[in-house]
Specification:
The structure holds 2 protein chains of 2 kinds.
Chain A (H helix, E strand, L loop, with lengths): L20 H4 L2 H21 L5 H20 L2 H20 L5 H4 L1 H7 L1 H25 L2 H32 L11 H22 L6 H22 L14 H31 L10 H34 L7 H21 L6 H24 L10
Helix pairs in contact in A: 2-3, 3-4, 4-8, 6-7, 7-8, 7-10, 8-9, 9-10, 9-11, 11-12, 11-14, 12-13, 13-14
Chain B lengths: L3 H15 L2 H20 L6 H19 L8 H30 L7 H5 L3 E5 L5 H14 L3 E6 L4 E7 L2 H23 L2 H10 L26 E8 L3 E9 L2 E20 L5 E12 L5 E7 L4 E3 L2 E10 L3 E8 L7 E7 L3 E3 L14 H9 L3 E8 L3 E3 L27 E3 L3 E7 L5 E7 L3 E3 L2 E9 L7 E6 L7 H10 L2 H12 L5 H32 L4 H29 L12 H15 L5 E9 L2 E9 L3 H20 L3 E7 L4 E7 L4 H17 L8
Antiparallel strand pairs in B: 1-25, 2-3, 3-24, 4-23, 5-6, 6-7, 7-8, 9-10, 10-23, 11-12, 11-22, 13-14, 14-17, 15-16, 17-18, 18-20, 19-20, 20-21, 24-25
Helix pairs in contact in B: 2-4, 4-7, 7-15, 10-13, 11-12, 11-13, 12-13, 12-14, 13-14
Classes of the chains: A mainly alpha, B alpha+beta.
Bound molecules: protoporphyrin IX containing FE (HEM).
Chain lengths: 389, 694
């Protein structure tokens, strides 16, 4: 196809668009920035006694990060504000007493961590339904509903995690920790991150047609999470064993899930790609070059963050187990995943290996990643199932 | 000179191949597959485990292929070596063109080629010719382009670009891979084997104590990388690290001494471990300086290039005091016994410190136990276990959907069951029986028991002896019953008492016969023996169940009578039969049954202990570490640069009454279309042109 044909993602070009980015900022951008800085300040004043130097550092690194994200991606600002409001409301309702989770109506049925996370799941399912409806009937309004549902889901999910964090402090200061430690919390994070990442591309390429393909993979994760939390009661906040009490881990885990999120999206888009390239649903899905582009961007983000994640994993290992790399199954699987996508990127660069091949590879990649993420914890032994001490 | 030309070209072809992207791809694929094998096949297991797993035929082949130690196998190292080689060549080959790309502006691009760009547009500027290039460059500068202006007679070419950093990213990302691999090599145990051959060292068998290890297994102090364990009991000092090398051990002397003052384990209130810490005093050999440190998990300590990690702990020589309850037919014999964790005491051979047993039971026990030995293998003062029922009330699924996540799970009741100790009784033939015991009574369904579990091999799961406690919370009653129940000398009295309940003459007779038979059979093989005897008797199928029940009743009555005899002997009054006592009788009976399979003439009840722990530190020297970390940093920077910094080249060619705008990038992505459109329109606006047409 003509590369010069103007892309569907072609946004109207405002005359200001190419001027220095600072002057591009709107009033709301500045308000947002001020709010974030203010919030960080409050957090520091109120909570610094619970934080060590590292925590405080992280806190103040996050302020500019969130601001930058909000400026680069407008809808994110609303997300941040909504999450902040809900989480603070929830904390206010708790009044420092866990038991209130059962008494206060809003806590019990809306914004205590478990409830919020349940809502996240519910909205993710409904969003999927809506996207499917939109896909089947080619109705734009259905897809719009889908994406607003997805937005609500992410807000609830993020609120849930934050409140869970607070609850862990109510459970006991020594038990308290950021909820990115066990498989259950990891799955919430995954659903959250993947949904956000998807919504980002949705806006970036302004097409909602991919929701029907991407959301199911998130739902699969949610279903596993629900099963896991029912059968294992995995939802409960557990104190951390000494090996898990690591700074590095707190960066390792989230960046890992940005990675997995990117890979998951790429795989689902890969499926869409195969359909279109075989002339199926051509009028219900974006054109090939858009799909190819999303696939590449998703894998690029995934790969970049997975690289960092693996490195921080190594740093953590170096501190906890005395070696940054000891070919433990989990480490090796991470390497396999990473190398796999390195291959993908290189294949894309070699002219004659593109199109369907890449799509298939991206799909296969999801299975590799899934094994690396789940399989190892379930089937293999290693220091990540840490029982030695 | 004929040969040189073809050889040279052959070399070129080789380099060409090695540095090609396709080669890289296949190399990475092979690496991935090799690692996959390494994860699927468990690495560095004991040889026989593999034999079991893969069988006679495959096992030797696999081990020849090095599948049991993939990551140190020569072929795996070879793959990595090729990766390094190919990446290096790739960098070298890319170097000149890339640098040209980074520095050059292509200001000599031909008009013809510009007109073939996928992204191009041309329009008529309204600005007078002399202002055009000024306006264009102004625009380019404002939008962050760097540019060269190239004036010709009849045309002007402005060649602009931005985002060349992406190219530098390529060098960072790929160079870092070389760095990381080299660093990794420096720290791999490949160097250890090199060292072994260099200095002609031979790993010593693992059983030896540090003192016994011969010089041939002691490495020189060196700057080489190593990874070893240091085992330090409280109050002692270590100065050597033990390195595991091909199923033996080597000693690595350390440039300092480490003394363990104390080892602590802190617990959360639910009993889960919270902190492992060793208070150590480190004395440098050279400078003699001394410093105290506390080593914790995730808080290592480095000195003279050697890093110390808290990696484990062990129980070293805690003193244990027992009361041994005799479980022979001999009259109630309880005697004190002393043990030390990790020690082994021969029983009743002349040189061993004699264990004082009150006569007459010493004879019985000594005959029974001549040549036996007792090893105290484990002692743990704190044992948090989940004593909750898997589906206790309150575990409705709804719980996991609503409310806070910080409630305890309904099916989890963590409790500290107190000290747990393990000892092994080894018979003269070397046959071992392992006994696992809790010091404190354990409550099960509201009743108190002493628990002692037996197994004859690590594979088996333990079968528990549950000794019921009497109303005074003591196990003595049960032991007394146990002894009298199996004592032939006291059987007559027991049976006499048993039949005295009945008045009918004939009944007495049958009861007596039944009781005799049962007692002997039960003494031989417990309920098993009794049941098998039933099946031997000429009792019809449908009656057997009844018979079984009847026999159990008889035995339980005998238990009751034995209990009463014990009480009277102890000067306590006899009790009237009552349902309240049924549980105790039942449990006593069950315990008697399992005591027959217990396989030891005594039960060791822990009465007192003095804990002594050892810490296990890991000591590593990894010279490659800094290289790897540097590499990692560069890798992250490089990857981000490559993937997210887009190189853009923008050309503006002014002819007499035309401005040609063309754009190119090193990666074809959609945003290029957008960016082009933006700059096209921007330039058009700057040059005061009408709506441009492609
Ligand atoms: C584990 C090993 C490797 C990793 C992680 C890696 C990573 C990458 C990444 C992330 C890119 C950018 C892809 C993109 O922008 O879409 C790239 C590009 C490239 N890689 Fe690799 N690479 C590896 C090994 C190799 C090897 C062994 C070679 C050569 C034999 C190679 C040659 C190249 C080339 C030529 C490019 C294109 C650079 C450009 O045009 O800007 N890579 N690599």
């Amino acid at each position: 196809m003509e590369l010069t044909s103007s892309p569907p993602a072609h946004r109207p070009v405002s005359p200001a668009a190419h001027v220095n980015w600072l002057t591009r900022l709107s009033v709301s951008d500045w308000l947002f920035a001020i709010a974030v800085v203010f919030g960080a300040g409050i957090a520091y004043v109120r909570c610094s006694q619970f934080m060590d130097g590292y925590d405080i550092g992280i806190l103040f690194i996050h302020a500019p990060l969130i601001i930058a994200l909000g400026w680069a991606w407008r809808p994110f600002r609303l997300f941040v504000v909504a999450v902040a409001v809900l989480a603070l409301f929830s904390i206010w309702l708790y009044q420092g007493d866990l038991a209130r989770a059962e008494q206060a109506f809003f806590l019990k049925y809306l914004i205590s961590s478990q409830t919020a996370i349940t809502w996240m799941s519910v909205f993710l399912f409904t969003a999927t339904g809506a996207y499917w409806l939109g896909f089947a009937t080619r109705s734009d309004s259905a897809e719009r509903t889908g994406s607003s549902m997805a937005w609500i889901a992410t807000v609830m999910g993020a609120t849930g995690l934050l409140v869970r964090w607070y609850e862990s402090y109510l459970a006991g200061p020594d038990i308290a920790h950021i909820p990115i430690s066990n498989l259950y919390e990891a799955f919430i994070l995954f659903s959250l991150v993947t949904a956000l990442l998807y919504l980002f591309y949705e806006g970036r390429y302004n097409t909602r047609k991919l929701g029907a393909f991407v959301l199911p993979v998130i739902c699969a994760a949610v279903i596993f999470m629900l099963w896991y939390s029912i059968t294992r009661e995995a939802y409960q906040v557990q104190p951390l064993n000494p090996a898990l009490q690591s700074y590095w881990k707190k960066i390792h885990v989230p960046s890992n899930f940005i990675g997995y999120g990117g890979f998951a999206i790429a795989a689902m888009v890969g499926i869409a790609y195969l359909f279109v390239s075989r002339g199926k649903f051509t009028n219900r899905l974006p054109e090939l070059r858009v799909l190819e582009d999303v696939m590449y961007k998703a894998i690029a983000i995934g790969f970049a963050f997975f690289t960092i994640a693996t490195i921080f994993g190594a740093l953590w290992g170096a501190e906890a187990w005395g070696s940054y790399w000891q070919w433990d199954p989990k480490e090796t699987c991470a390497l396999i995943v990473w190398v796999n996508y390195a291959i993908w990127l290189h294949m894309r660069l070699t002219r004659n290996l593109r199109g369907e091949m890449l799509a298939w590879w991206a799909i296969a990649g999801l299975f590799v990643s899934t094994f690396a993420f789940l399989g190892v914890n379930l089937f293999l032994t290693g220091r990540h199932s840490y029982g030695a001490l | 000179m004929q040969h040189s030309a073809p050889r040279a070209s052959f070399l070129d072809d080789l380099v060409e191949l090695l540095s090609s992207m396709r080669f890289a791809i296949s190399l990475l694929t092979i690496l991935a597959i090799a690692s996959l094998i390494g994860t699927v096949v468990q690495q560095e297991q004991p040889a026989n485990a593999y034999l079991q797993q893969f069988g006679q035929f495959w096992d030797p082949i696999f081990s020849r292929l090095g599948l049991y130690a993939v990551y140190s196998s020569s072929w795996f190292i070879a793959i990595l070596a090729f990766l390094v080689l190919s990446t290096t060549l790739c960098i070298i080959r890319q170097f000149t063109p890339m640098v040209r790309e980074i520095r050059g502006f292509r200001e000599h691009a031909r008009e013809a080629s510009l007109r073939h760009f996928a992204h191009r547009a041309s329009f008529e500027p309204t600005l007078p010719p002399e202002e055009r290039s000024g306006a264009a460059t102004a625009y380019l500068a404002r939008t962050g382009f760097r540019f060269r202006v190239n004036d010709h007679a009849d045309s002007t070419l402005i060649a602009a670009k931005k985002g060349s950093l992406g190219r530098i990213g390529y060098f960072l990302a790929h160079g870092s891979i070389v760095l990381i691999c080299l660093g990794g090599l420096l720290d791999s145990n490949l160097l250890l084997s090199v060292q072994i051959h260099l200095y002609g060292k031979v790993p010593a068998p693992g059983e030896l104590t540090i003192g016994e290890i011969p010089p041939s297994a002691r490495l020189e102090p060196s700057r080489w990388s190593f990874r070893g364990n240091i085992y330090i009991p409280e109050g002692t000092t270590a100065s050597q690290a033990v390195i595991n090398a091909d199923n033996g051990v080597l000693l690595q002397p350390l440039p300092f001494k480490i003394e363990l003052k104390r080892f602590h384990v802190d617990h959360y209130e639910n009993g889960a471990p919270k902190r492992y810490a060793s208070d150590v005093v480190i004395t440098d050999n050279e400078s003699g300086e001394v410093f105290e440190r506390t080593l914790e998990v995730n808080k290592p300590f480095e000195h003279r290039g050697i890093t110390l990690y808290q990696s484990g702990f062990d129980n070293d020589g805690s003193m244990l005091n027992f009361t041994a309850h005799g479980m022979t037919s001999c009259a109630h014999a309880a005697f004190p016994l002393e043990g030390k964790v990790g020690r082994r005491i021969p029983l009743f051979d002349k040189q061993s410190e004699r264990i004082k047993i009150p006569p007459p039971c010493n004879q019985v026990l000594e005959n029974y136990l001549a040549g036996y030995s007792l090893e105290f293998t484990d002692f743990r003062p704190i044992n948090v276990e989940n004593v909750g029922a898997p589906d206790s009330e309150g575990n409705h699924p709804g719980a996991s959907f609503l409310g806070s996540g910080a409630r305890p799970a309904s099916n989890e009741k963590l409790r500290n069951l107190g000290p747990f100790y393990t000892y092994i009784l080894r018979d003269p033939a070397g046959q071992a029986r392992e006994f696992n015991n809790y010091m404190n009574p354990i409550q099960i369904d509201g009743l108190q028991y002493l628990l002692s579990g037996v197994r004859t091999s690590r594979m088996e799961n333990v079968s528990w002896l549950r000794i019921p406690l009497d109303d005074e919370g003591s196990a003595d009653t049960w032991f007394a019953i146990q002894q009298s129940f199996f004592d032939p000398a006291r059987q007559a009295a027991l049976i006499k008492r048993f039949i005295s309940h009945s008045t009918d003459k004939d009944e007495k007779k049958t009861l007596e016969a039944a009781a005799k038979l049962l007692l002997t059979q039960f003494a031989q093989g417990g309920m098993k023996a009794v049941e098998s005897s039933i099946s031997e008797m000429k009792i019809p199928e449908d009656k057997r169940e009844e018979a079984n029940i009847f026999f159990v009743q008889v035995l339980q009555k005998l238990v009751w009578d034995a209990w009463m005899m014990v009480r009277e002997a102890a000067g306590k009054g006899k009790l009237e039969p009552d349902d309240a006592y049924a549980p105790f009788v039942r449990d006593t009976f069950i315990a008697l049954d399992s005591s027959i399979r217990y396989g030891a003439p005594f039960y060791l009840q822990l009465t007192n202990y003095e804990q002594r722990q050892a810490t296990i530190l890991q000591a590593t020297r990894s010279p490659g570490k800094s290289l790897v970390y540097l590499g990692s940093l560069l890798l992250s920077l490089g990857v981000f640069a490559m993937l997210f910094i887009r190189e853009r080249r923008l050309f503006v060619l002014f002819k007499k009454d035309e401005a040609l705008v063309a754009m190119s990038s090193d990666r074809k992505t959609i945003d290029l279309d957008e960016t082009f459109a933006r700059h096209r329109d921007g330039l058009a606006a700057a040059l005061g042109a009408s709506a441009p047409q492609d």
